[in-house]
Every structure is written in structure tokens, then in C-alpha cells.
Amino acid sequence: MKIDPKTFVKDYNLLVCIQCGTCTGGCPVKFRSPLNMRRLVRQTHFASDPSLFKKPEWWACTTCSTCSLRCPAGVKNVELILGVRNYLANQGEVPSTIREALENTLLHGNPWGRFRDRRIDWAKDLDIKILGEETAEILFFVGCAPSYDPRVQNISISLVKIFSMAGLDFGILGKKESCCGNEIRRMGEQALFRKLLRDNTNLIKKIGVKRIITISPHCYNAFKNEYPELTIPVYHYTQVLVDLIETGKIEMRNGSETPVTYQDPCFLGKQNGVFEEPRKILSSLPGVTFTEMERSRERSLCCEGGGGRMWTEGFTEGIRNAEIRVREANRLGAKVLATSCPFCLLTLEDAVKTSGLSDQIVVKDIAELVADSL
Amino acid sequence: MNIIVCVKRVPKTAEADLFIEKDGKDIKKDHLVFALNDWDSYAVREAVLIKERYGGEVMAITVGPEDSKEVLTRCLAMGADRALRIEEPPCFDALLIAKILARVIQGQPFDLILTGVQTEDDGWGQVGVSLAQLLGIPHASIVNRIEIENGKARVKRELEGGLEELLEVRLPALFTIQTGINEPKYVSLAAILEAEEKEMKEVGLEELGWTSMESLYATLDQVSFPPAGKMAEILKGSPEEIVNQLTEIIKKKKG
Amino acid sequence: MTEIFVLVEHRQGKIREVTYELLGWGERWIGQQEGRLTALLLGYGVKELAEELSMRAPRVLVVEDERLKDFNSIYYQRVLSSLLSRYQPLLLLMGHTAYGMELAPSLSVELDLPLATDCIDLSFEGRQLKALRSIYGGKINAHVTLKESKTYMITLRPGIFPPKMPEEKKGTIVIEPSPIQETTERKRFLEYIEAPLTGEDISQAEILVSVGQGIGGPEHLPMFEELAKSLGGMISCSRPVVDRNWLPKERQVGISGKTVKPKIYIAVGISGAFQHVTAIKGSDTIIAINKDPRAPIFGVADYGIVDDFQNVIPLLKEKVKGMK
Predict the structure, then answer these.
(1) How many domains does chain B have?
(2) For residue B14, which of A111, A175, C271 has the smallest C-alpha distance?
(3) Yes or no, beta carbons of B217 and C187 under 8 Å apart
(4) What one-character DSSP code corresponds to residue A224?
(5) Which of A97, A150, A358 comes nearest C310 by C-beta?
(6) Domain at C202-319, CATH homologous superfamily
(7) Are residues A75 and A178 in the same domain?
(8) Closest chain C CA to residue A312
């Protein structure tokens, strides 16, 4: 399928754009890169010269979708970015680190190129059902970062502990699990995304579960919004934990006086409207005093971990948003900056180190906080 | 400029746990992922870059089992114009592969043959240069730059210690390509799917007139795990404990 | 009488170390048997090199020709083909090096002699040659038998056999006439190109923090640079890192890069391919961090950490701050 940039105006309905600049106003990387969404939409109107699409700033977008969500005319700016990236990817013109992430996903089923056989190393000391060999009501879709990243694995382990205590009937796909494709689509590899979509849908249908729980808001977004044939309900784990707490299936007993604040992951909050559940959980943790950062919920500042940015290098300069965020949380007096996304966790934790705030604030995933309090 | 690139499909073993088959003749491969040999990938890219500069056609050839077609498809997606799979003999060594390739290539018009320096699996580093000798053409190995002018190629070979040498080689010639010679380009799945439609020829050994197998020059008796030998003292404990031990070691050894 | 030929490798007026390793192996193998070890020196104006060699080889056979001044496999092949046909030694040993790899396969095809490349050990069962090769990046050994032949050809992996040391007793030097008749235009040596040095010279570093492909991506480099700085050392890398343009060539440790001898060599995410390992053997202390417990690097390291570097390096970096 050939992509022709000349049809972008029609494909993404760009003629409705009124050039108000709301998109650029809300863009989290507008100060960190030359990316100017309003201008790019305008230039696309006259894009007879394909060199427009070879500008590096197309890779700076984190696909947080603030622009699209705020656009008064309903322009799908992020889809335009994905269209351009798809055009570039089909020509092989992607940054080298993205190239490796995409090649790795085709070969190994995860962007880091870790071996499939190692996908369940994190669970080797745990007693978990492997779906396909055994049956269960719930598919716990672990995802790539929670399977392989040593820091993020702790979220997976924490959730297994919580789910087991609550008596949920769940299992994982084990070595057969592959990338959900959310980031792959956002790095421009639509064909690879479609392959993952097809393989995962078939696999999930075959094992016959009733629901899916994901760790990453990115997997949640993909299954919920971009897998048309997957009709069973999909939950982000925070939605499940609220339910377990409210129905008394888990009891949080331990905790000390801790001021906590929360980073809304873009793919959970803005894009999918899950704002309340994480806050409810945090507020019910023993000893926790919960404070909001100034920019929260729909206005939350993107950590820059999305849209393939976990695999890009450069394209932005100046202070990283994650650092701005960590400093903001620190000024607020928070001792814990909580989040509910593997990418937020990694970018924020890195920012704590680079800001030299390691002795003042820690980054924790909500799953870890809950598991610690049991 | 007609270019032939010889490639191989190999298992990726960098991170994998390896096991040995019961008969001791090979490693177990059913849990491994296969891909185009890394060196060959650079060779195909280089062939396509040369084609873009000087015109002509690129043909990719492999000697391998049915599954090898997937790496040929990748070569086509990378810009090769034609692809040919030659049936793999039941047992072979590097020289036999070179002889089979020579038999097929002898009938083809070509100016340049590229291969990878070696393969990731058994790494003989022997097929390319042997093939050149069989075809009676000059060669250069471990090449990391090619420039072509007036029927001659100026090539840089990588020597040891950061040193390189510049050679002039008359075409037709064969070069074995070193990694890093070019910037790899992403091969999209869309391009691979499109390449699946392109023509791929297959030829059996009998069709080539290969009736009885010659005796091999090198026969693999068995494979084994290397003896453990000296092993590093592995630091144990939590990351904090490990780093404490490590810091002490560094302090001591730093003097 | 058993005769072993060793091809002398020399470049820019210097004999390369691999030559002495081949002679060392040859001498040990011949041992008490009735046999002779001969070093083949092909070159031009190489009298001094022949003298040098005679201290480490019982016999040096010299072929001088202007066209052998710099290595060109076509001329080397011409000479070796003539010598092998005449003397029919049991074994011709070469290094598995840029020269050996350029020459051995074509020579073996021309003379129809069995060849095993990149061997890490050899043995004879009668007249049958058995070779040991290291494959799959050093994770597996392959035991290979070569077809019975009057003469065998072997390229031996450099850096694994102890070199032959010089002796008081000098070997004989025999001059052979050059069999080269025609000058060829098919392949011509033009010049050597030294890699330009723009930054620090890693071969001078006392401490090296060396990174491999296992660090995942260039985004982690600043962390390693900071660690190296805190320790008063430099950052270096393995070949795949240079191929990916994460670091410039001058940072590469390995046979095709630099040989290093620091007090402390910290290898992170480096599996330990022989091309790399050979070039770090002179280090006083080697520390390896790798998540694969079977990575060959642990076979040469003094201390090992089997873990993801991200669990270790950030902590270490904090811990050694200001240690310099």
C-alpha cells in the first residue's frame, strides 16, 4: 500500500483546521524542539515537496494527543504525525534507534530485542498460570517493559501478589506474548502493527478469556481502541485495584505518613479518561496524604516516554519534561511521585537521578505502593 | 554494474541459551529466531547503494533450506532485483557451498560479487574468497569502502589495530563486506510484504547436474560446550551490596 | 620427516605477534618428534626481519621480490603455491587475520588442499588432522576432521597461544628464488591508512569503562561517560557500538581497534567475542557486567556481575563520585 503525502489533507481532514494554534499551545515539546503543530498542518496543505516530511521534528512528538483532544475543529493532528512517520518508515527513513526497535519487534516480539524465551524470567519464582496450557477467566497482559525491564518487572511482580491475594482467576500468555503494537503504530510501522494486532487477536481469542488486565496504559489503549475484533472488556490495572479495595478483597494495612502526588500517564488519563481510579487508590493508602500537582488530569504534562520516544535519541533539547515534573513534585513537598505507567516510571525515575533529588523523592508505581501496604 | 550478493540465513544466538542435539552434531535450533546474517545484510545494502550510483541489477543468492526464502525476500525488500535459492546439500562444508555458488554464477553476467566477511553461526570466513578463486576473479576481503571507476574498484580493507589498506582491484571482482561499511536502512514490513510478490527462483542440486556428493574437506564430528576453565569471581547480593564490593575492588586495584 | 610451515606476517617493517604464536604452537607440537619447523618470510629488503626470526625459528626460508614489499594475496599465493608444491609440508599455519583471511581460502582452492579457518586447537590422529573451532560467538566448540591430505592448511586464531620467545641459538636462513614472473594489475596495493585520532587515546588510559551492544542504545552513554570521569578513566567500546555510530572508531577496543592495558577494565554489556577479548588480556583487572551468565566475557574477567547494568551502574556512579 503506497502512501502519498499529497492525500494527507484529505486523509486527515486537515481542511477543517482554522489555524488557531491551540495545538501548538498545548504541545509538551514545543519548547524542546522545532515541532510546531499548527505550522505543520498548514504546510501539509501545500505539501508538494516531500522534503517537508523529512524534518527531524516529526520524531519529537510524544503522541500524548493533547493537541488533538483540544482542537476545536476536530483535527486529528497525531494521526497526521503517524501518517508521516508511516510514509517515512515505508521508505526506510527512520532514526537508527527506531529502526532497531522495529526490527527487534518483528524478530523477537519486543522492541528491545530481548529473547522470547526470557520473557517470563521475571515470573520464575512465582506460581502463575500460563494460558494455553491452563485456562483462566482473566488474561493478565504483562507487556514488554514489565516483562524485561528490571525496574519495571517489580510492577508485574507486585500485581501478581495483589491478584493472587484477591483470589482473581488470572493467567499470562508466557513466552507467546508479543508486543501490543501501540508504540509500533506510533513509530510509523502500520503494517507491523497490523501483524501484531492480527497475531495477538487470534491468540487471545483462542485461549478464551473473559477479560484482559494490562499493566501499561499503552497496551490498554491499543486493546481498547485499536483492536476492533477484540470484543472482550479491557481494564487498566488501576481500575481493577479500585474494585478490589472497594469490595474488600484486598486490605491495605501498612503505611507511614507520606505525602504523595501523582503523574497522569497520557495514555491512561487524557486519552482514555481514567483519572479517578488512581486517585482513589492513592487516597485510600494508609498514611498517605495526596496532593495534586498544579497541572493534573487533562492538563497533565507529558513525561515524553510515549510515541516511540523511549527509543529515540535527540530531536529535543533543554530541560526534559520529566525533570520539570519531578521538581514540581518536590516543591509540592511530595516524598513519593506516583504513577501508573512503565514509561512514566522510567522517565521520571531517571529524572530524579539527573536532578540530584534521589535523597528527597522517589518514584513509585501505584501497584508497588499497594503491594507494599498489604 | 551487475552485482551478485551471496547471503545466508542464520540463527540469532547472542542472548539465547544454547543446547546440543542428542546426536551431538549440532545445537538445538527450534527455539531460536533466524535472520539474515549480519555481515550479509551490510553486503546487500552496499550492493543496492552501488546500483543506485552506477545503475545495473542486484541478484541475491543463497544456498539453504526452504526457510531461507525469507531472507531472500528481505534482500528483495532491501532493493535486490532478483533472488535465487539453491537447494542445500545434505551435508556440506564452506568449500562445497563455494563450489555450488560458482556453478550457478558461472552462467550469469556480473561485474561484482559481494558476500559477508563471515557468518554469525560457524564463521568459516571462507566461502567468499574461495568462490573468487573458483571463478578466477580477483578478490578483497574485510572491505569497508568501495569506490568504482573505469572498470576498477578502489577498496579499503580493514587490518588490525585501527589500520586500513587501500587496494585497487580490477573488475569483475569479489569483495567480502565488513560490518559498518554503510548505514543500514530500515526495511519496513510493507516493503517485505510487497517483495513477497517479486520473482524468486529456486533450483535443485540435480538440476545443476550435482548428482553424487563429493567428499567433504572438513567434516563436523561433534559440537560441545567450551570447557569452563577460569571463571570470574561472581559478586553476589543485592545491587547495593554488589556495588559496595565493586567499589572496594576498584579502590584496591586502582592503587 | 614432518615439516611444518609457518607463514610470517609482517607489516610496515615489523613482524606481527601472531607469527610468534604460530611458531610457539609449531615448536610445541613437533616436540620430540622428528620434524622441522620453518618460517616462511615473503617480502622485500627483509634481511633484518629474517635475522630477528632466526632467533625464534630453527629455519627461516626467505623469498625476496619487490612485488612482495607489501602484502598482496596474489603474489603471496604465487610464492606459497610454488613452495608448497615443492616441499609438501604436513601443515601450513597462518594467522586468522586480515592477511590469513585474504589468502588462505584461495590458496587452498588452487592447490586443492583441505583448510580449516579460525582454529583454536589442533591435533593429529595418525595423519588425519582434527581441528577445534569456536563458533556461535564463543558459546560452542566444533570438532572438525579434515579430509586426509599430504598437506593441510590451517588459520589459527590470534591471541590464544603463547608466543615463542627468542633464543640464543640461531636458526638457519635459507634464501629461495622468487617464482613470481608476471606483474599483475588485477589487484594492487596502494597505501596504508591510519585511523585519525581526534580525541583521547584509550590505549593510554589507566581505567576504561567499556560498553557493548548490550547497553541497548546511545541514550545511556552519558551515564557511562560520567562514571568514567568520576573514576579518572575513559570510555571505550566494542565493535558493534562503532558499527552503530554510537561512538567513534578511535574508542573501539579489539583486534580491528585498539589493544589496551589499563589497570582496571570494566566491560558492560560486552559478550566477549574473541576479537574483543584478545585486545584486553593485558589489563590488570577485568570486571564484567552482563545479564547473560554464559557470556564468554566471564571466562576472561576477574570479577563478574550477572545483572542488568541498569541495576548496577547508576548506583556505582553515585558511589564513586569524586573518587578520582
Answers:
(1) 1
(2) C271
(3) no
(4) I
(5) A150
(6) TPP-binding domain (3.40.50.1220)
(7) no
(8) C219
Pair A227, A147 in one domain: yes
Reported as a single tens digit per residue, the pLDDT across A82-91 is 999 999 999 9
Encode pLDDT of B53-100 as tens digits.
999 999 999 999 999 999 999 999 999 999 999 999 988 899 999 999
Name the DSSP letter for residue C71: -
List the one residue out of C201, C209, C238 whose CA is nearest residue C323.
Answer: C209
Average pLDDT of chain A to the nearest whole number:
94
Asked if C2-176 and C202-319 have one fold, the answer is yes
Tell whether the model's pLDDT for residue A1 goes beyond 70.
Answer: no
Chain A CB contacts of B16 under 8 Å are 115, 117
Cβ–Cβ contacts within 10 Å for residue A232, how many?
14
Quote the number of domains for chain A. 3
Q: What local confidence, expressed as pLDDT, does residue C324 receive?
A: 60
| Mean pLDDT score of chain C | 92
Q: Across the interface, do C217 and A313 touch by the CB < 8 Å criterion?
A: yes
| Angle between helix B69-78 and B38-54 (nearest 10) | 30
- Per-residue pLDDT tens digits for B104-157: 999 889 999 999 999 999 999 999 999 999 999 999 999 999 999 999 999 999
Supply the pLDDT for residue C46: 96
Owning domain of residue A29: 5-90
ipTM of the complex: 0.92
8 Å CB contact of A150 and C308:
yes
A-proximal residues of C, 213-252, CB under 8 Å? 216-219, 244-245
Residue A152 and residue A81 share a domain? no
Q: Which residues of A touch B188 (CB under 8 A)?
A: 89-92, 102, 189, 191-192
CATH number, domain with residue B147: 3.40.50.620
pLDDT at C322: 64
Specify whether A152 is located in the same domain as A281.
no
Here the cell at position A335 is: 516524598
Q: Is residue B169 part of a domain?
A: yes
CATH code: domain of residue A109: 3.40.50.1860
Cβ A102–B186 below 8 Å, yes or no? yes
Residues A206-215 as b or e (16 or more Cβ within 10 Å = b): ebebeebbbb
- Which residue range is the domain that position B184 belongs to? 2-203
Q: Which chains touch B (3 or more CB pairs under 8 A)?
A: A, C
Q: Pick the closest to residue C246 from C226, C266, C224 (CA basis).
A: C224
Question: Which of A90, A112, A137 is the last residue in one of the domains?
Answer: A90
Q: Are B223 and C311 in contact (CB < 8 Å)?
A: no
Report residue C139: phi and psi, to 5°.
-85, -20
Q: What are the sequence ranges of the domains in chain C?
A: 2-176, 202-319
> What is the per-residue pLDDT across C23-51, written as a single tens digit (0 to 9) for each?
999 999 988 778 899 999 999 999 999 99
Residue B245 in any domain: the answer is no
User: How far is Cα B243 from Cα B247, in angstroms, rounded to an integer?
Assistant: 6
In sequence order, the 6+-apart residues with CB closer than 8 A to the CB of A281 are A238, A241, A242, A245, A366, A369, A370
Are residues A163 and A206 located together in one domain of the fold?
yes
**pLDDT band for position C106 (cuts 50, 70, 90):** very high
Mutation choice for A interface testing from B32, B71, B189 by most A CBs within 10 A: B189
User: For chain B, where are the alpha helices, taking DSSP H only?
Assistant: 38-54, 69-78, 94-105, 127-135, 189-195, 239-254
CATH of the domain at A262: 3.40.50.10700
Q: What is the CATH number of domain C2-176?
A: 3.40.50.620
User: Helices (DSSP H) in chain A: which residue ranges?
Assistant: 8-11, 22-26, 37-45, 66-70, 77-90, 96-108, 144-148, 153-166, 182-186, 190-207, 217-221, 237-246, 276-284, 321-331, 342-354, 366-373
pLDDT digits (tens, 9 = 90+) for C264-308: 999 999 998 888 988 998 899 999 999 888 888 998 899 999 988
Q: Are residues A261 and A315 in the same domain?
A: yes
Residue A105 and residue A82 share a domain: no
